[in-house]
Amino acid sequence: MFQVPEERTKAIGIWALGYAAGGALGPLAGGLLLQYFWWGSVFLIAIPVMLLLLITGPILLPEFKDPQARKLDLLSAFLSLAAVLLIIFGLKDIATYGISWVAIASILAGVGIGLLFIQRQAKLADPLIDIALFRIPSFSSSLTLYGVGCFVMFGSFFYTYQYMQLVLGLTPLVAGLWALPSFAGFMLGATQGPNLLKRLSHAQLMAFCLLLATIGFSIIARLDAQSSVLWTVVAMFFTSIGFAPVVTMATDLVIGSAPPERAGAASAISETSAEFGGATGMAVLGSLGTAVYRQFMFSKSFEGIPAESVQQARQTLGAAVNEANKLGADGAKLLTTAQNAFINAMHMSAWVSIGILFLLIWLALRTLPGRVAQVNQTV
Fold first, then answer.
1. Mean pLDDT in the chain?
2. H or E stretch at 164
3. At what angle are helices 229-257 and 180-196 packed, to 10 degrees?
4. CATH architecture, range 135-379
5. pLDDT higher for 72 or 362?
6. CA 160, chain centre distance (Å)
7. Interior/surface letters 61-94, b for 16+ CB within 10 angstroms, e for the rest
8. Strands of 82-207, DSSP E
9. pLDDT tens digit string along 282-300?
10. Angle value at C-alpha 327, between 323 and 329, nearest 5 degrees
């Protein structure tokens, strides 16, 4: 829709604002629903939103059709889905039961199917994913920064909201309210990040923003059960304001680096990378955290507490909170131990995320445009 670089950059900025606004309303709306209604209401609320989109989309959105549109390869879609599901199943199984032949075989099968998927895309006349785009250096590096960045950010969401509710004791509604400053940071970063490209190159700005995100994760790595919720808010603000420009810049670079006739395919790959990175981040970092949590819980003894309650508490922090509430005063030790186990898992995830972010900083400095003059010509 936007073939003029300046218009495209502005459009992506507006898109990111919509993304941030939706993200800000999501936890708040979810908190309200969980406070007063059945938990399934958080899924039902999507129905009127999607109905509105189905009605207004055809009316308001300009339609651009490719006269030589390619057909969908269903086998490729099946291979990609099977590869992802098998790998994630293996990781989750290891986190739950430890290393086993079933888990290893599942991961290896997923990797093998993934390789078959890539080989098939290279041979097809109408591939599901255009492999040729990955030969463009700025496309590949920007896509990696976007996808792996989502891996880290979505993985952190797995912990921060649980921490606020199950460790600090906030209700879902109050936790959603405390999350609003982080999305304000996302909106600020999304709008002001492109303006900084007048003084900094893509490489410099991307590295600076990722460094801001590491500050947020460094704070998360220091939180404990006695920490003020304000520290969590500050940490989430830094991660959001640091990651927001990465979204806009990476998306702009991915679409802008592809030939105009492949811009749609580049955009689709960009969003697929973000969704895949986010889902994988929650699966991988969540699984690692679950493994740390359970190892900590199994290393402790709980004398005087029913074995069934202990068994449930060793599964998740949510289960530990439920069991502790049933036990009353006798559940205090169980709850405290479970909260400390979860905090250890959260710290581990934060340090892993910091290491990944430093690798992304190195990648940005090595592969993205390093001169402001180059950027100003395209933006």
1. 83
2. none
3. 40
4. Up-down Bundle (1.20)
5. 362
6. 13
7. eeeeeeeeeeeebeebeebbebbbebbbbbbbbb
8. none
9. 888 888 888 899 889 988 8
10. 125
Give the DSSP letter of residue 166. I
Closest alpha carbon to 152 in 212, 96, 227 = 212
Closest CA relative to residue 316, chosen from 341, 333, 352, 299: 341
Report how far residue 191's alpha carbon sits from residue 189's, in angstroms, rounded to the nearest whole number.
Answer: 6
Side chain identity at residue 275, one-letter code: E
Q: Which tens digits make up the pLDDT trace of 105-150?
A: 999 999 999 999 888 888 887 777 777 778 878 788 888 898 898 8
pTM of the model: 0.79
Distance CA 290, CA 346 (A): 10
If one counts every other C-beta atom within 10 angstroms of the C-beta of residue 112, the result is: 12
Q: Is the pLDDT of residue 367 over 80?
A: yes
Strand, coil or helix: 45: coil
Question: Residue 200 in contact with residue 245, Cβ under 8 Å?
Answer: no
Instruction: Please give the Cα distance from 292 to 296 (Å, whole number).
Output: 6
Ranges assigned E (strand) in 196-331: none
Domain coordinates in residue numbering, the chain:
71-129, 135-379
Residues in the chain: 379
Task: Give the integer Cα–Cα distance in Å for 131 and 117.
Answer: 11
Q: Which residue has the tokens 């005087």?
A: 304
The arithmetic mean of pLDDT across residues 302-307, rounded, is 84
Residue 192 has a CB neighbour count (10 Å cut-off) of: 13
Closest to 153 (Cα-Cα) out of 37, 261, 238, 56:
238
> Phi/psi of residue 339, each to 5°?
-65, -40
For 165-204, give the DSSP string.
IIIS---HHHHHHHTHHHHHHHHHHHHHHHHHTTTS-HHH
* Whole-number pLDDT of residue 374: 42
> Quick one: pLDDT at residue 65?
67
Q: How far apart are CA 133 and CA 259, in angstroms?
A: 9
DSSP secondary structure letters along 254-268: HHHHS-GGGHHHHHH
CA 227 and chain centroid, separation: 25
